[in-house]
């Protein structure tokens, strides 16, 4: 079992799995995680690391962001304090800054982020570098962003990104529920 600070996402995982008419064994085979571990997650007896959550999301044809968003109830007014942490991953911290089921998804990434995944969002995405530096590869071009820089990626643009300085802090805001994770 992996330790983490990821929010409880069991109900969201179970809803998505059932919507796809999949068994725990199906998800275990797709994710490489054990059925007992997945059962513990669905029953909120275990909390997956961000890496495991991404593996589960991949197996469910969705993203970790979507599962995190689906784990919270919709709020009309919601204050997220700076100290509200959600997840740790190899020295990196991921914190939702918008919670609940909304069209707007926003995450703050702090620490080392690797460009190991390529994304394509149906709708627009905005990246804002609060501290440090980031390198974004989009449509064959590399964009280097520093503190205070903003990059807008229109819907449909394939991209990947990574931090290039320790302690970097990046805000990523995306619109809509349709995110496609592309293979390498």
From TrEMBL:
UniProt signal peptide: none
InterPro entries: Cro/C1-type_HTH, Cupin_2, Lambda_DNA-bd_dom_sf, RmlC-like_jellyroll, RmlC_Cupin_sf, TransReg_Diox_bact_type
Domain named HTH cro/C1-type: residues: 13-67
SUPFAM superfamilies in alphabetical order: lambda repressor-like DNA-binding domains, RmlC-like cupins
Superkingdom, taxonomy of origin: Bacteria
UniProt keyword terms in alphabetical order: DNA-binding
Name of the protein: XRE family transcriptional regulator
Organism: Streptomyces solicathayae
